[in-house]
Write a structure and sequence with these properties.
CATH topology of the largest domain: Nucleotidyltransferase, domain 5
Oligomer: single chain
Strand order of the largest sheet: 3-2-1-4-7-6
Mean pLDDT: 95
CATH superfamily of the largest domain: 2-keto-3-deoxy-galactonokinase, C-terminal domain
Strand content: 15-25%
Low-confidence stretches: none
Length: 306
Amino acid sequence: MNDGSQIEPAWIAVDWGTSNLRAWAMAADGNVLAEATSDEGMAKLTHVEFEPALLRLIAPWLGKGQTLVAACGMVGSRQGWCEAPYRAVPCTPLDPAAQVTAPSTDPRILIRIAPGLKQTAPADVMRGEETQIAGALRLLPGYDGVLCLPGTHSKWAQISAGEVVSFQTFMTGEMFALLSETSVLRHGMQGEGWDDAAFDLGVSDAISRPDRIGARLFSLRAEGLISGLGPASARSRLSGLLIGTELAASRPYWLGQRITLIGAAKLSAAYARALSAQGIDAQHLSATDCTLAGLASLVSQTEIAR
């Protein structure tokens, strides 16, 4: 992709998470002209530091006129640049009228932030995933079924008639990180190796007996001490146990439904493998493709509404 010199984007897409900031210079036809990333995520910034952080990343793309910046993610949280209040489901994933304009001093940018979604009972929220969901619906016109967004906090969303009907969040990715990096299990999980058979065993154990998850977890430590369970097998089985527990709890979402996964290729492949063992054939979409398609949809609707 272009390094950013002599770029004249029609608009700029921004995905601003807790840990990282990603930006894309977008052409009017939706093609990406350039992209840039930084580690200046929401968690590292105060309210007054958001605009300088953004300008450090996108300044080479700005001309004399004003450029629209369409943003999603934690930038719209209460601790972000400007709070974009949650919209309640059931609703469309994005609504151009609900965007919030962030305060800025540089006349070259107009920042519009997409709000997240909330659910009252059971209580749940999302920020950023709603944009990916909107992108998936743009890439898969007329989609009815369930979208699964694996990640630190995995989301399962029921989609019907272009609306998010309900959703549920699981802290699967965060639990994997905590258990593998800071719990007693960490001693037997060094490295990045992978063992498909161990993963499959973990999924099967968790789905058949999710009530035994606490005991199954400690068994990983015990097997490492007395039976020589290797790090790759231990990590893989831990992943399988946690994903299997998530599948056991989310069964009403995926059983007999059309399923599409939105996320990183490696993690989505693990979810697809776990679902395949339950007779579910899930398709996969790139999280980045969905984010850009969602923001593009929002920008086009905003232009039409003007």
